Known about the structure:
By secondary structure, the protein is α/β, with parallel strands linked by helices. 32% of the residues lie in helices and 22% in strands. The protein has helices at 13-17, 20-32, 107-120, 179-192, 212-221, 231-239, 264-290; strands spanning 41-44, 57-63, 81-87, 90-95, 124-133, 143-150, 196-203, 225-227, 243-253. The termini are far apart. 43% of the residues are buried.
Amino acid sequence: MLFFRPPKVDCGDKLRMDTVYTRLQESARFIDSLIPERPAVGIVLGSGWQGFLQEIETPQEIKLSAIPHLLPPWARQRRGAVVVGKVSNVNAACLDARLHTYEGFTAQEVAYPIRILGMLGVKTLFVTNTAGGINRTFPVGSLMLIKDHINVAGEDPTRGEEEVELGPRFVDMSHAYDPELIRLTEVMAKGLGIRIKKGVYASVRGPTYETPAEVGMLRTLGADAVGMSTVPEVIAARQMGIRVCGISCITNKAAGLTKGEITHEEVLAVMNDVGIKAFKLLREAIRGYYK
Ligand code: HPA
């Protein structure tokens, strides 16, 4: 064993005080002291999805950097906030930006804000992202409901010392993306006249985009889209028994499927074009679920 574990001597509360769970309690208590009502639904906004913040009524913004324990010391300058308010009359807490493992955060750090939402009482989580389309029938600009994922990056926030308060040691992922939420979101999309795809999301570590050979590999594995986020959040949510709905915006064809290069600017520009449609779908999915 190469890493250091504190000796399990009986120093009572001192040893018990610094667990992920006790830190989460402090983080959640801080937010709870500032907001009028606890959220039922959590939302994570991926790159370019920030326009969704307009859909939040009576928004109250709490900076991530103000929340105890949320960011490691080296990341305290980072922007980002939890915006609490109502979406379609449902109490919601929305993370306006996520943490990524490619920024140097561990999977546990990436999942930490989700765990706070769970501690605050969130029972349903909507995760959004942008992704490269591997499935040739998914046009650029389409929205894809995530029906399952492949954790190619191998990042898992549940790894490490067991803390029973966070949920089971071995988390079942058979229904990582809630079938009922998928069905309902499809119904809502139909009602809005929005054509959506359903597919498997492969998470890679990034931040480099894939090579064409890697994209070929991911297709062979069964992936329809590829991105660099989301999976650690979904795992942490499932560990806490939170139901998840995932929506990807296909912002580009994955590497090797077109002659052009992939750029982050292109990703943001496509997301900008798709925005209104995407935000409407997210809002209606929440309304449909809670009505
Ligand atoms: N690959 C990985 N992540 C992405 C892509 C991609 O092509 N597009 C948007 N996010």
